[in-house]
Amino acid sequence: MRRPTRAAYRRSFAALAAGCALLLACDAGPAGQEGPIYLVERFDESLVEPAPSPIPTPEPTEWDFAEGDERWRVAQGIADARVVDGALAGTSTSREPIVVLQTDRPRGTGDRLHSVVVRARVSAGKTLSVTCLNGEREPAAKLLARKPPGPLALETPLLAGDEMQTYTILDSRNFPLGKPIDRSDVERVLVMPSDQAGATFEIESVRLVFRKEYLATVPSGIGWHGLGEIYHETLVTRSPETVRFRLEMPSRPWLDIAIGTIEETPVRFRVEVAEPGADSGEPVLLRTVTTPERWEPARIELGPWAGREVDLLMAAESASEGAVALWGTAVLRSSRAPGSASGRDAEPGTGPPKGVILFIGDTLRRDHLQPYGYERANAPTLARLAEEGALFEDAIAQGTWTKASVPSIFSSAYPATSGVRDFVDRLPASAVT
């Protein structure tokens, strides 16, 4: 059987997504109707009380190749390896020269690798690669034999030449061994300084930056963070900070939000509604999060303040100063009036919510699906949808992979317009979907 082309895969993905969409109705409502207020778009550093102060950072995990430091060895493909003037020098004898760096375990849990920073000079080659191993993972020789995606999991283009360069490899822009790397996973670090035989190199330092260390260097504000592999556009604060938003409440207001933390110690989330400029107000949310790496959704009713100008105070409290609090996708919404009429005679903007329910089947082969002529009856529900609805024979996705394609389906925007092209990119909260 002839294998389908990459374009055929893209067409079948888009056709399946379009064919499985159940369109209930689309109604944006009349002009001037109250819309959601995204707090991330109202945020400014001046709203944080008190002003953020420097946070102590965890002990760094770093190799600086001082004389006498023997926490390294050559695994393969390197000749004349030695420490010279505070740098590990050598010459690659193959396309996969590997240096193994040993850590002092245990290094603790509950923190994920954010990035790897390598300071090095390499004379030739196109790629510098790094990965982390622990005693429970497969041995280095087995890992190196697996291709694609290549010998190591985290990689960056090389700037070959005579100058010392600093390379920052983000964990989130790679797919390291199929899951995020926990601090406890780091027993050995494998570094491939070049992918070309005959290249000379000097590695001045290798540093592992974990998420808590990274967040300690970033001012309180907006970020893109995941807990349990669920990502939100997130307001990041630290205990004992409070963020004050001055808002004009809609007619039937409620706050839609998810809260969470990466801390092992409990973090208390407090939301208050106060008169403009008041030091405190009436609590509308008091919740202590004791389980890290998990979002807890919350719906906060704000009806008593409908139509008024108020200050919304969002505070984090913890016994550990500087503990990270994550406020995910905080949106002030307006509910529909209870008992609203529905149907053709309903007033515009009333009645049950209207929208689109979209079912997407990802990574399916068009030539192995019943609606597209496959001989086996392997997709009866899709076949029925195709018979009763619309089947698109020539639909083309706007991106070559899921992360770019799906936002284009949601927003009717090309990836170049939506800005979603890489793993860490996201649609802005203000995007119309």
Description:
By secondary structure, this protein is mainly β. It has helices at 6-19, 39-42, 140-145, 211-216, 380-388, 402-411, 415-418, and strands at 21-23, 37-38, 48-49, 61-63, 72-76, 78-84, 87-92, 98-102, 113-122, 127-133, 154-157, 165-170, 188-192, 200-210, 221-227, 230-238, 242-248, 253-260, 267-274, 282-289, 296-301, 309-317, 324-334, 356-358. The strands form five sheets. Strands 2, 15, 16, 18, 21 and 23 form a six-stranded antiparallel beta sheet that branches. Strands 4, 6, 7, 9, 12 and 14 form a six-stranded antiparallel beta sheet that branches. A five-stranded antiparallel beta sheet has the order 3-17-22-19-20, with no helix packed on it. The chain is flat, with a radius of gyration of 27 Å. The relative contact order is 0.18. Residues 1-33, 147-151 and 341-346 have low confidence and may be disordered.
